[in-house]
Here is the input.
Amino acid sequence: MFNKWAVSSYQLATDRPLSKWVVWMPVLATSAYPFFLNAFHALVTSGGPDSNLAPAELLLAIVTMLAVFAIPVMGLALACLGIDRRNNTAAQLKVRRLALFIICAPTLYCFIGVNLIMAGAPVPDEWFWVALWIGIGAFLSRDGRGVEESIRPLRALAAWRVAHGIAGAIVLLFIAFHLFNHLFGLAGPQAHAQVMEIGRKIYRSSLVEPILVVALLFQVFSGLRLAWNWSAVGSDNYRIFQVGSGVFLAVFILGHLNAVFVFARTYAGIETGWDFASGDPVGMIHDPWGIRLLPHYSIGVFFIITHLFSGLRGVMLAHGASQLKANQIWLGGAVFGALISLLIMLGITGVRLF
Ligand code: HEM
Here is the structure.
């Protein structure tokens, strides 16, 4: 099912030179990302924090939030398009790498926003974003007629893959606890803080914290190295998903570490507890800046879990498991990831189950 995402009739796989629109259409759609977020925020806050939305407003709010999520989905779908190795291969690969970068839009917008605050930039985030994407579009489409070049052959990168897996296991110990901790948001800020206090004794200790940060940075750089290599493979969309979620996580991790260590703890001197995570007391949904955290966190949690299951799928196949079994496990992981992400986001936006 997943492999059918590849639409071989799309222009990427024709003999004609690549049209500049193959770059410009996704780039222009991505440049609209902050405006979808703003529209959603304006709709949900139009009547004040406690008022109910009229059905038409609610429908529009749902549509605008779907548009927000449609941007990384578009990036993923574009990345899955087949590469025709007879013509314009290098140009097609460039489009795929652009597509992988587009998947990062939700987390990149947070990263940019945090840095613009720290830089004291007078430019609104939205206009910085639009200028960035127009710059990317202009850069990538400058030789849009396509150059007949072959792409470099794939390398096995066995040592990188093993190292990425080992560092991933160290990181997993923290992430499993961290996400478990965030699930306690469903029981309220106090329960969340109590669990965090227990964990902090370990992960913020002078021994563990540097190891965690180094392991995460290693994951980012080794992951990007692997992604650069694997992005040249178009046949297996499970692999493209693994690469796409990994590229998102690279930006997410850099941005999250920057937000926690540089922005909150160093620049602003604020406590990185519940209020920092949820945007309270205003709340993520009702804060015009904080609304961007909703897609950033929800996709981050979903991707960290599915990325791990993508790795597990690869290991299962390498050890002789059937394709069907490995794919079923991956699908189970994706459903699990979506559920955990939904529960954490419900808790962080104010839903209480206990
Ligand atoms: C809903 C999703 C998430 C939220 C709301 C969130 C929020 C937070 C908060 C509030 C802290 C500060 C913790 C403290 O002060 O003790 C933190 C730290 C951290 N988070 Fe997350 N996080 C999320 C997901 C993730 C994911 C998916 C990763 C990994 C890819 C991650 C990696 C980290 C790391 C490495 C730290 C630093 C830990 C330390 O203080 O040493 N987070 N996060």
Observations:
- The mean pLDDT is 91.
- The pocket of protoporphyrin IX containing FE is lined by residues 175, 178, 182, 196, 200, 203-204, 209, 212, 216, 249, 252-253, 256, 260, 272, 276-277, 297, 300-301, 304, 344, 348 (CB under 6 Å).
